[in-house]
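User: quick one, fold this
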Amino acid sequence: MLSSKVFCFNPFRENTYLLYETFGNQAMILDPGCHSRDEQNELVQFVSDNQLNPIAVWLTHCHIDHVLGLAFCIEKWNIPYYLSFPEIAQLKAVEVYAPSFGIFNTWLPEKEGVVFEAEEIRLGDEQFRILQIPGHSPGHLGFYHALSGQIWSGDVLFNQGIGRTDLPGGDLETLKNSIMEKLYTLPENTVVHPGHGPSTSIGFEKMMNPFFKLRS
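Assistant:
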């Protein structure tokens, strides 16, 4: 079985997720945003208290708020990080624009990330389907766990909202198509874990999201 823990990190209030086996010790860190020493310690303490073994970092996309803890995590646990090919340029750009957000001590990994090349990826016995959902960012990914009916979808679909498209690589029509074609085709009881704010569901968003109100 799959368990998860969400942390709200950095000034952008970004959701960092720790996914782990309920009856095992393998864990995966999704979108590490832990920026301050206290945030890093909070993540490490949870891993230690639950005797988990992080084996990788997965990135939905590489905007600054989702990678502020990337270098810390891969060096702390000596693990690889995975991203989509279009997001490599997004990651490299973080150091350039970070000062415009008042962040001057950006610390990015020295080693290259591993590009996702398969449509599925595993965490122990847990299998995830990788969804290509661009629009907020050109190489944005979602991670769908069909067995438990959950998807970790970054900054694409929020509780009664959608991701912004005014950042480099963003495109509103592409984002809307991603939501309609990739997310809204999932079962309506699928729980959506976004990159910011509370979780929601596909069925709820179909009815209540003002950008995609499909039913009266």
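User: anything notable?
Assistant: The two ends are 36 Å apart (CA to CA).
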